[in-house]
Amino acid sequence: MDSKIAKRRIGDVIRVDTITSSQTDFMATHVELKNIQLARTYEGKAECVLTEEEAFHRYVLNPDNVHQLILVTGLSGTGKSHLIRWFSTRLQREYQENEVVLFIRRSDNSLKGTIKQLLALEEVAQIPDKEVYERLVRATTVIDNKKLKDMIYQNFIVEIMNDENDEILTHHKKKRLVALLRNDSFQERLLEDDKAIDRIYQKVAQSRTGDTRDVVALFKAEDFYIDAEFCENMIRDEADRNARVMAQSLVGDEEYAEQIAKYMNTLVNNVIQTCAGLEPGDFEQVFLEIRKELKRQGKSLTLLIEDITAFTGVNVALLNVLSLENTGMYGDICRLSSIVGTTTAYFEDVFPANYRERVSCYMRISEEAFGADKDSLCEFVGKYLNAMSLQTSVLENWLDKGGYQDDYPVHMDVEGQDWDRMTLKNGKQVNLFPFTRTAIIKLFSLLPERQQTPRYLLRDIVERGVRNYLAGPELFPGFTIERSENYPWNPVEHRGRLLQFAKDSEFDRMDIFIRIWGNGNLFSDMDPSGKRYLGGIPEHAFDDFRMTKISGIERRDSLPETIKSETKPLEPKQISIEPRPPKPEASPAQIAFQLGIQTIYRWVQGGTLNFDSTKRDAKMMQQSRDEMNRYIYNAINWQIEGISIDNISKYTSKEFIGFERQNKKMDKSLILLEANSETQSVLEAFLAFVTLGEGKTWDFEGGPWRQYQIQLWFEKVKPRIIEKVRTFNGYIVDYQECAIAAEMLREILAGQYKGSTVEGMTEKLLWETQAQTVLDTSSHCKEWISLMNSVNDTAQTIKNTILDYYNIVQGTGGRNKYIDRAHLNGDFKKMQKQRLCIREEILSEKDPFKLRQDIRNIFRDIQGKLQKVSEAEVERAKSKVEKLAELVDYKSWSDSDILDLVEEIKEFYDGANSAKINIKYEIGMMKEVKKDAGSIAHALKNVDNGILLKDPLDVLMAFSQAPLAKIDKLLLLLEKVHKDIKFVQGDIEKRREKAIQNLGGTRDDRYDAQKAIILKNMETVEGWEV
Amino acid sequence: MLLEDLRKAIEDMEEIQSLEQDSQDSQRQDRVDNLYGQEVNDNNKLVCNIENTRKFVKFIPSLALKERLRKLLKDSKDCMDTGLVPESRLKALQITTKKVREDFEREWNIFYKDVSEKRLHKISAIKEITSDKNKTGYAINKIRNGLIINYENDNRIRQLAEGLSEADDILKELGLDKENEIMTFLDKVSEGQATILDITDSVEKWIGENNLGGKFLIRFGS
User: Fold this and answer.
1) pTM score
2) Per-domain residue ranges of chain A
3) How far is A896 from chain B (nearest CA, A)?
4) Quick one: A44-128+278-365 is in which CATH superfamily?
5) Cβ contacts (< 8 Å) between B70 and chain A: which residues?
6) Contact call for residues A798 and A830 (beta carbons, < 8 A)
7) ipTM
8) Is A904 at the interface with chain B, CB within 8 A?
């Protein structure tokens, strides 16, 4: 390479559009096209396979001088334009006096452009009405893009409105279609770039540049796909009714959309013709005249058209003129030989079927033809590299002298001396620097299948590579090479060696260089001439690119695969259709592994480590990390380490490991691994397990070593992990203590524990008591009931937590639970000693394991409410005993006092019954009180004592057995009696007044008379002697 | 306090029941009162009657009678204690009164018999020989009427007392008040037991003096 010249020339030489490159560059870079399939019909089998020379001589030169229409077909970028141009160039050189050759470039591809060129031929200077035709093509005004697009759009509407053919769409449907097309929103959609109107516009407009290949100027069904949201917007915007109906009918109906597109395509030609401002008839007329003129001059016409797609709209007219033979009544027109390039897509979608028979033959350029021959590939690249290192004048000189291959100029090497070369057929050698044969083949194979064409080879490999080199040899190869992981290190360990010896800043490009330019290893070899190679690359190459010298690894075998400094000269051989070269030999696992270690490397260098389940590399990282976590979980014997299985099972995510600069949240992980070489080795080891071992086995090359690395690393991190599970924020995990305390409090609140001291509680209650308790709402204050209800919801969870925490899992577990009694007792006693309390400052620390924290929250909630509950209960008690004290002097009451009271109450009610006073005799209440006399008396004592307590826990225990409920029974009865007494008193008073009233006075003097008589008689009798 | 209120209520209820019972039976009570008043009056009459018998004929009630009367009066006084005389007690009173009256009447009968029977025999026996037979007859009637107690007034008692006094006068007039042999003879004659042997000299003399020979019959005895 001569980089000085190349810097200037690269832009001129590398033109992906072959037509825009200069003739000299075109010829200097031309590589013979060999695999041209010749067929008589489009679908037919190839009759033969020709080289370009053969095709030129047999067909293009038209030795038989017959009318012919040859179509050159192939996918975009396969070289159709190049071939046609080459035909044109050759024709120009093979000068034939009576042959007029006209080459229509793509940029000239329009009716007007074609006619212009035709009219410009000196042979047609004298055709009649030439001025008329010239005026015609000049008459076209240049319309601006937007206006032209609008014109195209509106012309479609006009065509529909004037279309009387109802075969595809009925009149009503056309009416609605017009309404829809007139809708602003829909119009905006269709006018967007790359939509149908834009595609048609591109064919009509003359000034468009850019890659418009393979764009078919037709409507597609997708142009008429409408969703419900669009319909709703139309309703909202009060669109025309017909437009809405049309839109609605298109929603979800792909078939109908297809039908509409098909209909619209029938109008495309007319619209284009209208917008182009030229009638097909005009074109035919001009062409006819030209051919007549040429005939008069005794000349024939060879027309080469690069791309027929630009004739959209008038393709029928064009085909008419091209297929018109100079026989019969057209004997007055010249012989025409047309070679027309067309893409496969256009031919299949647009080329009228009835014209296909008029095609004389098809020259097919298969996409597989390019690249099948490795030598051609290298020749292609070599010629471009050569051309860009040559001054234009040198090439022009060569071309002027005939442009013969034997005289083909080769540049003087400034860079890349003693580099890989390609020997041409003429024996000359072109330097492949900065590429190698191996690199070219590998880089080409890494292109996506549909892009393995000359165009992409030039753009994505040659141009990028050369520009990269020209930016500085110390940067090469630094251009993006997609899918390079398909060429992994083999053996993988050599990568580690490179990591060890290469500078960090150089590693990436050396890694690529060795894998793509070389063999993907660091074996040191020597060829018979004594030249040393590293990984199949000459050692000097590393110097050429300013790479660090690395000592290779010796191996016993002689050089198995070396890069030869010369390639064999091209030998003529039977041309045949060769299959595309096989894909790289590395297995998918190796490729995946390579990709993974690249990813890890980039992370260690300062990048982000992505975990994702969608992208391939991120998914692998995720799998590797998951394997690490799984390994850690299974490798630690938790119970031996003093960690309950329940504890570790509450760490649901099991994300023990996090990584510095990872894309996902890091707060879930227990420990964070730094981006260093140790982490890199371990992560690579798990990556190897996931890829090379398929996630199942370590039985792959290097597997045992990687296992060993993992074990060493594991022993280092294990204590950290265990500590993170055992503790949090400097505190030892305490959720089990919270559970114990919560359960004990529940038992007190529920009245299941009947004692009066915490010390009296036993651990057996933890599993012997029922989880669910329903309290009578009268038994306690509402705060107590409310707390009890909320505790009920979590009671079973708490119990389960306790049993699970202290359960010693044996084997695979089972239904039975084996409680670590000593541990349980220890914690139980601890909570007793702490009086079921845990300091708030400890509880306020958040346990990172959510399930553990849930248990702590449950307890914290309970603990937080105890003070309030106890105060409320005491208040309630005070209120009750105050009421009681207003009624009776209950202090020092025993059960017999209560029984006596009940008896008196009974007597009261009996009396009331007897006195027929209307008060309800609550015999049930009395029976209750009588039955519970003993417990009521006991409750009274307890309540009196309980009111005086201050500690919430003591209060709870004092009121645990619901003494207030017992007192309530008594109080209710007494309150009723009190009320009834009042009623009775009132009643009696009224009745007394009435009774006296009825009696008519006081009783005092009622019997005065009788009394006097009796007294007198008594006196008389007393005086008797007997 | 509740207990006290309770007990008071119980008492009040009992009282009101009682009061109401009384109040609801006010007419009945009036009737009872009337009966009671009547009873008291009757007792009064009884007492007055006994007092009259004592006064006029020297009746002496027995101790038992006195005791019963005393109790009767106490009971009737006690009836008033509750303010209203209960009917039940009235009834009891009535029964007692009836018994006391019967007792009195029984004792009176005995007493009457004792004081009147002989006299009646005697004067009935000598009625024919008395100077004023009508007077003797009147006396005999008076004495006989005195047997039936008239609680409404004291007429019969008075007349009894008069009759007895007149009978004694008649006998005295005949000199029979002291001559026991003659009264004995006359008693026997009135009993139908006198024989010729009982005619003593005094008897014979008396008969002769009073010219009563024709007043006596002689008949064969069994």
Assistant:
1) 0.54
2) 44-128+278-365, 145-274, 374-479+527-554, 588-728, 731-871, 890-999
3) 15
4) P-loop containing nucleotide triphosphate hydrolases (3.40.50.300)
5) 1018, 1021-1022
6) no
7) 0.81
8) yes
